[in-house]
């Protein structure tokens, strides 16, 4: 590959556990359904040491940047949000770690604001105020790292019980187009981060992203070289029509998924970006938890032409 190279790791759906003790007031909401689901299903297959194995492997490969596409927590209680903030500090400096929120990070009304305030260093753009501002819109944000433009979008909104959908607004779409065009004019490789898969039919109706057509228009008119998402807990590759050609849309399994579950074992994507505008080279590799859960193994790779 041409030099210089930029190495980007991608994880999602961390779902940090275990659940803290919740008050009756905290459970008197949609959280009660998530609480029951955690104890019946998630806690059996989501393990913290699994996440540590992935992060250690990413560190060993000397990634330049880590992209985290949402669902850091489970029920978005105050204690979970604080725990996630502390965890982010152990993962890496905000300069080298970018986060977008998922539906679990906005599980109930008010949770999104608390999470963004707590995680602000990891969700602020390069030109955003240094300190959190209550009335300041965060997304979309732009971070420029080397020859790469990282664009963070949010689909995180509080939803009724038994719903996990996301929403991508027209305001956010307009601003994303402007960011992508400017980054393209600057000759940068554009990576868009979003939690819900922006692909029709990629997930069930109650988990869908509202605004899929709007997002597709953003990519086709603004341009991008890579889209990263989470939410489905699956390793997937789709394509959207871009300004200059097809754009890969890549999903990843939950970073905390242990062996023996119905969903794929924990994994991360590792991208190596090189070249220049009009001649980008993108190598995409995936590494997943080993069969016995004791380590991380390569699962394969694709060369995605851009």
Automatic annotation (TrEMBL):
It comes from the Bacteria. Residues 7-233 form the Calcineurin-like phosphoesterase domain. Belongs to the cyclic nucleotide phosphodiesterase class-III family. It comes from Rhizobium tropici. Gene3D superfamilies: 3.60.21.10. InterPro entries: Calcineurin-like_PHP, CNP_phosphodiesterase-III, Metallo-depent_PP-like. The keyword Hydrolase applies. This is 3',5'-cyclic AMP phosphodiesterase CpdA. Signal peptide: none annotated. Transmembrane segments: none annotated. Keywords: Hydrolase, Iron, Metal-binding.
